[in-house]
Amino acid sequence: MVKNIPFTKMHGLGNCYIYIDLISRPLEMGTYAETAVKVADQNTGIGADGMILILPSNKADVFMRIFNKDGSEAKNCGNGLRCVAKYAFEHNLVKEQKFTIETLGGIVEAEIILAGQHVERVTIDMGAPILERKNIPMAGNPVGRPVIKESVFLEGKGYSVTAVSMGNPHALFFVDNIEEAPIHELGPILADTHPLFPEGVNVGFIEVLTDNTIEYRVWERGSGITQACGTGACAAVVAGILENRLKKDQNITVHLSGGDLDIIWSSDTEHVLMTGAATTICEGTFYL
Protein backbone atom coordinates (compact mmCIF):
# COMPACT_ATOMS: atom_id res chain seq x y z
CA MET A 1 0.00 0.00 0.00
CA VAL A 2 1.36 3.40 -1.01
CA LYS A 3 1.72 5.87 1.88
CA ASN A 4 1.52 9.61 1.25
CA ILE A 5 4.12 11.47 3.33
CA PRO A 6 3.82 15.29 3.36
CA PHE A 7 7.28 16.86 3.62
CA THR A 8 9.14 20.16 3.66
CA LYS A 9 12.67 20.38 2.28
CA MET A 10 14.79 22.96 4.10
CA HIS A 11 18.44 23.87 4.31
CA GLY A 12 20.76 25.64 6.69
CA LEU A 13 23.65 26.99 4.60
CA GLY A 14 23.23 24.19 2.08
CA ASN A 15 22.98 21.40 4.68
CA CYS A 16 19.58 20.12 3.52
CA TYR A 17 17.17 17.67 5.12
CA ILE A 18 13.67 16.42 4.49
CA TYR A 19 11.50 17.63 7.40
CA ILE A 20 8.41 15.65 8.38
CA ASP A 21 5.95 17.18 10.84
CA LEU A 22 4.58 14.42 13.06
CA ILE A 23 2.90 16.86 15.45
CA SER A 24 0.36 18.27 13.01
CA ARG A 25 0.07 15.02 11.03
CA PRO A 26 0.85 11.76 12.88
CA LEU A 27 1.80 9.20 10.20
CA GLU A 28 2.54 5.51 9.86
CA MET A 29 5.69 5.41 7.77
CA GLY A 30 7.60 2.23 8.55
CA THR A 31 10.97 2.39 10.26
CA TYR A 32 12.47 5.85 10.39
CA ALA A 33 15.91 4.63 9.26
CA GLU A 34 14.55 2.96 6.13
CA THR A 35 12.41 5.98 5.29
CA ALA A 36 15.41 8.30 5.68
CA VAL A 37 17.43 6.25 3.20
CA LYS A 38 14.58 6.34 0.69
CA VAL A 39 13.75 10.04 0.88
CA ALA A 40 17.42 11.12 0.90
CA ASP A 41 18.35 9.22 -2.27
CA GLN A 42 18.96 11.78 -5.01
CA ASN A 43 18.04 9.38 -7.82
CA THR A 44 14.96 7.58 -6.51
CA GLY A 45 13.92 9.84 -3.61
CA ILE A 46 13.80 13.56 -2.96
CA GLY A 47 17.53 13.99 -2.37
CA ALA A 48 18.99 15.37 0.87
CA ASP A 49 21.62 14.89 3.56
CA GLY A 50 19.02 12.98 5.57
CA MET A 51 15.63 13.25 7.26
CA ILE A 52 14.54 15.19 10.35
CA LEU A 53 11.35 14.42 12.26
CA ILE A 54 9.47 17.05 14.29
CA LEU A 55 7.70 15.26 17.14
CA PRO A 56 5.85 16.05 20.38
CA SER A 57 8.03 16.29 23.48
CA ASN A 58 7.35 15.72 27.16
CA LYS A 59 10.40 17.80 28.10
CA ALA A 60 10.47 20.70 25.64
CA ASP A 61 8.24 22.51 23.14
CA VAL A 62 9.17 20.17 20.27
CA PHE A 63 11.36 17.08 19.78
CA MET A 64 13.77 16.71 16.85
CA ARG A 65 15.13 13.38 15.63
CA ILE A 66 17.84 13.32 12.95
CA PHE A 67 18.57 10.51 10.52
CA ASN A 68 21.53 10.62 8.14
CA LYS A 69 21.24 9.57 4.52
CA ASP A 70 22.59 6.11 5.41
CA GLY A 71 19.85 5.62 8.01
CA SER A 72 22.05 6.14 11.06
CA GLU A 73 20.65 8.40 13.78
CA ALA A 74 22.50 11.50 14.98
CA LYS A 75 22.09 13.07 18.39
CA ASN A 76 22.22 16.69 17.27
CA CYS A 77 22.38 18.93 14.21
CA GLY A 78 22.97 22.67 14.42
CA ASN A 79 21.66 23.47 10.95
CA GLY A 80 18.69 21.18 11.58
CA LEU A 81 17.90 22.97 14.85
CA ARG A 82 17.64 26.31 13.07
CA CYS A 83 15.36 24.85 10.42
CA VAL A 84 13.16 23.12 13.00
CA ALA A 85 12.91 26.43 14.88
CA LYS A 86 11.84 28.24 11.70
CA TYR A 87 9.32 25.54 10.80
CA ALA A 88 7.87 25.34 14.31
CA PHE A 89 7.29 29.09 14.53
CA GLU A 90 5.97 29.59 11.00
CA HIS A 91 3.60 26.61 11.32
CA ASN A 92 2.29 27.66 14.75
CA LEU A 93 3.71 24.68 16.62
CA VAL A 94 5.08 27.28 19.05
CA LYS A 95 3.80 30.78 19.85
CA GLU A 96 6.79 32.55 21.39
CA GLN A 97 10.01 33.69 19.72
CA LYS A 98 12.00 31.85 22.38
CA PHE A 99 11.31 28.14 22.91
CA THR A 100 13.01 24.82 23.56
CA ILE A 101 13.86 21.88 21.30
CA GLU A 102 14.61 18.41 22.60
CA THR A 103 17.26 16.32 20.83
CA LEU A 104 18.93 13.03 21.73
CA GLY A 105 21.92 15.18 22.68
CA GLY A 106 19.90 17.25 25.16
CA ILE A 107 17.52 20.22 25.25
CA VAL A 108 18.51 23.51 23.61
CA GLU A 109 16.91 26.95 23.51
CA ALA A 110 16.04 28.62 20.21
CA GLU A 111 15.36 32.29 19.53
CA ILE A 112 14.04 33.33 16.16
CA ILE A 113 14.85 36.62 14.42
CA LEU A 114 12.00 37.88 12.24
CA ALA A 115 11.93 39.73 8.94
CA GLY A 116 8.27 40.71 8.73
CA GLN A 117 6.26 37.55 9.36
CA HIS A 118 9.02 35.17 8.33
CA VAL A 119 11.98 33.78 10.23
CA GLU A 120 15.19 35.14 8.73
CA ARG A 121 17.80 33.94 11.22
CA VAL A 122 17.84 31.78 14.33
CA THR A 123 20.04 31.81 17.42
CA ILE A 124 20.50 28.48 19.15
CA ASP A 125 21.95 28.13 22.64
CA MET A 126 23.90 24.93 22.05
CA GLY A 127 24.84 24.53 25.71
CA ALA A 128 28.30 23.83 27.08
CA PRO A 129 30.78 21.87 24.97
CA ILE A 130 31.63 18.36 26.11
CA LEU A 131 35.40 18.09 26.47
CA GLU A 132 36.15 14.99 28.52
CA ARG A 133 37.55 12.22 26.36
CA LYS A 134 35.23 9.50 27.69
CA ASN A 135 32.14 11.63 27.05
CA ILE A 136 32.96 12.60 23.46
CA PRO A 137 33.51 9.55 23.24
CA MET A 138 37.11 8.91 22.20
CA ALA A 139 39.15 5.84 23.07
CA GLY A 140 42.53 5.95 24.80
CA ASN A 141 44.05 7.53 27.89
CA PRO A 142 43.89 9.67 29.97
CA VAL A 143 40.14 8.97 29.98
CA GLY A 144 38.90 11.95 31.99
CA ARG A 145 40.87 14.78 30.38
CA PRO A 146 40.25 16.99 27.34
CA VAL A 147 41.79 16.05 24.00
CA ILE A 148 43.77 19.13 22.96
CA LYS A 149 46.47 19.03 20.27
CA GLU A 150 46.91 15.30 20.70
CA SER A 151 49.25 13.51 18.30
CA VAL A 152 47.64 10.75 16.25
CA PHE A 153 49.00 8.66 13.39
CA LEU A 154 46.68 7.96 10.49
CA GLU A 155 47.68 6.16 7.33
CA GLY A 156 51.33 6.47 8.35
CA LYS A 157 51.21 10.26 8.87
CA GLY A 158 51.21 12.27 12.08
CA TYR A 159 48.46 14.79 12.87
CA SER A 160 47.45 17.00 15.79
CA VAL A 161 43.79 16.62 16.80
CA THR A 162 41.49 18.40 19.25
CA ALA A 163 38.21 16.61 20.04
CA VAL A 164 34.96 18.30 21.10
CA SER A 165 31.35 17.16 21.36
CA MET A 166 28.44 19.54 20.85
CA GLY A 167 25.93 16.71 21.19
CA ASN A 168 27.76 15.16 18.22
CA PRO A 169 31.46 14.21 18.39
CA HIS A 170 33.97 16.19 16.33
CA ALA A 171 37.65 15.60 15.54
CA LEU A 172 39.21 18.97 14.62
CA PHE A 173 42.37 19.56 12.60
CA PHE A 174 43.94 22.98 11.98
CA VAL A 175 45.45 23.54 8.54
CA ASP A 176 47.38 26.35 6.86
CA ASN A 177 45.26 26.27 3.71
CA ILE A 178 41.67 25.01 3.76
CA GLU A 179 41.80 24.17 0.06
CA GLU A 180 44.57 21.66 0.78
CA ALA A 181 42.91 20.07 3.84
CA PRO A 182 43.06 16.25 3.67
CA ILE A 183 39.28 15.89 3.95
CA HIS A 184 39.06 13.10 1.38
CA GLU A 185 41.90 11.21 3.06
CA LEU A 186 40.95 11.49 6.74
CA GLY A 187 37.17 11.78 6.47
CA PRO A 188 36.49 8.20 5.32
CA ILE A 189 39.13 6.78 7.69
CA LEU A 190 37.85 8.39 10.89
CA ALA A 191 34.15 9.09 10.43
CA ASP A 192 32.43 5.74 10.76
CA THR A 193 34.80 2.88 11.60
CA HIS A 194 38.01 4.04 13.32
CA PRO A 195 38.66 2.51 16.77
CA LEU A 196 39.58 5.92 18.22
CA PHE A 197 35.92 6.96 17.94
CA PRO A 198 33.62 4.08 18.92
CA GLU A 199 30.45 5.98 17.95
CA GLY A 200 31.96 7.54 14.84
CA VAL A 201 32.98 11.19 14.50
CA ASN A 202 32.55 14.25 12.31
CA VAL A 203 35.91 15.21 10.85
CA GLY A 204 36.52 18.96 10.59
CA PHE A 205 39.31 21.13 9.17
CA ILE A 206 39.94 24.73 10.23
CA GLU A 207 41.96 27.57 8.77
CA VAL A 208 42.25 30.64 11.02
CA LEU A 209 42.02 33.77 8.85
CA THR A 210 41.91 36.49 11.54
CA ASP A 211 41.31 36.65 15.29
CA ASN A 212 37.55 36.51 14.63
CA THR A 213 37.21 34.66 11.30
CA ILE A 214 37.83 31.04 10.33
CA GLU A 215 37.22 28.75 7.37
CA TYR A 216 35.70 25.35 8.14
CA ARG A 217 35.11 22.20 6.10
CA VAL A 218 33.64 18.94 7.32
CA TRP A 219 33.17 15.27 6.52
CA GLU A 220 30.08 14.19 8.49
CA ARG A 221 29.64 10.65 9.75
CA GLY A 222 26.87 8.95 7.83
CA SER A 223 26.70 11.68 5.16
CA GLY A 224 30.20 12.48 3.86
CA ILE A 225 31.10 16.01 2.78
CA THR A 226 28.29 18.51 3.44
CA GLN A 227 27.93 22.20 2.69
CA ALA A 228 27.71 23.12 6.37
CA CYS A 229 27.62 21.62 9.86
CA GLY A 230 26.30 23.75 12.72
CA THR A 231 27.59 21.62 15.59
CA GLY A 232 30.89 21.38 13.72
CA ALA A 233 31.17 25.15 13.40
CA CYS A 234 30.58 25.44 17.16
CA ALA A 235 33.15 22.73 17.86
CA ALA A 236 35.65 24.45 15.56
CA VAL A 237 35.40 27.70 17.52
CA VAL A 238 35.75 25.82 20.82
CA ALA A 239 38.82 24.02 19.48
CA GLY A 240 40.33 27.32 18.36
CA ILE A 241 39.87 28.75 21.85
CA LEU A 242 41.26 25.60 23.51
CA GLU A 243 44.34 25.86 21.29
CA ASN A 244 44.70 29.62 22.03
CA ARG A 245 44.08 30.56 18.40
CA LEU A 246 40.76 32.36 19.17
CA LYS A 247 39.23 34.07 22.22
CA LYS A 248 36.15 33.51 24.33
CA ASP A 249 33.33 36.10 24.41
CA GLN A 250 34.17 37.22 20.88
CA ASN A 251 31.85 36.75 17.93
CA ILE A 252 33.62 34.41 15.52
CA THR A 253 32.43 34.26 11.91
CA VAL A 254 32.74 30.76 10.51
CA HIS A 255 32.90 30.55 6.72
CA LEU A 256 31.47 27.25 5.45
CA SER A 257 30.92 26.10 1.88
CA GLY A 258 27.22 26.97 2.15
CA GLY A 259 27.55 30.33 3.95
CA ASP A 260 28.44 31.88 7.30
CA LEU A 261 27.58 31.23 10.93
CA ASP A 262 28.26 33.51 13.90
CA ILE A 263 29.51 31.67 17.00
CA ILE A 264 30.24 32.90 20.53
CA TRP A 265 31.55 30.81 23.44
CA SER A 266 30.50 32.74 26.54
CA SER A 267 32.69 32.69 29.64
CA ASP A 268 29.69 33.73 31.77
CA THR A 269 27.57 30.66 31.04
CA GLU A 270 30.14 28.43 29.27
CA HIS A 271 27.46 27.98 26.61
CA VAL A 272 28.03 28.25 22.86
CA LEU A 273 25.62 30.45 20.89
CA MET A 274 25.15 29.86 17.17
CA THR A 275 23.33 32.29 14.84
CA GLY A 276 22.59 31.67 11.18
CA ALA A 277 20.03 31.40 8.41
CA ALA A 278 17.37 28.76 7.81
CA THR A 279 15.67 28.44 4.42
CA THR A 280 12.63 26.60 3.10
CA ILE A 281 13.24 25.06 -0.35
CA CYS A 282 9.97 23.35 -1.23
CA GLU A 283 7.02 21.35 0.07
CA GLY A 284 5.31 18.30 -1.36
CA THR A 285 4.23 14.69 -0.91
CA PHE A 286 6.53 11.69 -0.93
CA TYR A 287 4.98 8.38 -1.99
CA LEU A 288 6.45 5.68 0.21
Automatic annotation (TrEMBL):
Give the location in the cell.
Cytoplasm
> Which residues are recorded as binding substrate?
15, 68, 78-79, 168, 202, 220-221, 230-231
Q: In which broad location class does this protein mainly occur, judging by the first location in its UniProt entry? A: cytoplasm
Question: From the record, what ranges are coiled-coil?
Answer: none
Q: What class of enzyme is it?
A: isomerase
* Sites annotated Could be important to modulate the pK values of the two catalytic cysteine residues: 170, 220
Keyword hit for Amino-acid biosynthesis: yes
Q: Please give the Pfam families that the UniProt record associates with this protein.
A: DAP_epimerase (PF01678)
Catalytic residues in the record: 77, 77 (proton donor), 229 (proton acceptor)
Q: What is its EC number?
A: 5.1.1.7
Kindly list the GO molecular function terms attached to this UniProt entry.
diaminopimelate epimerase activity
Catalysed reaction equations from the record: (2S,6S)-2,6-diaminopimelate = meso-2,6-diaminopimelate
> SUPFAM superfamilies, alphabetically?
Diaminopimelate epimerase-like
Gene Ontology BP term (one)? lysine biosynthetic process via diaminopimelate
The task this protein performs is described as: Catalyzes the stereoinversion of LL-2,6-diaminopimelate (L,L-DAP) to meso-diaminopimelate (meso-DAP), a precursor of L-lysine and an essential component of the bacterial peptidoglycan.
Q: Which PANTHER family match?
A: DIAMINOPIMELATE EPIMERASE, DIAMINOPIMELATE EPIMERASE, CHLOROPLASTIC
Question: What assembly does the database describe for this protein?
Answer: Homodimer.
Q: Which family does it belong to?
A: Belongs to the diaminopimelate epimerase family.
Protein name, UniProt field? Diaminopimelate epimerase
The opening ranks of the lineage are: Bacteria, Bacillati, Bacillota, Bacilli, Bacillales
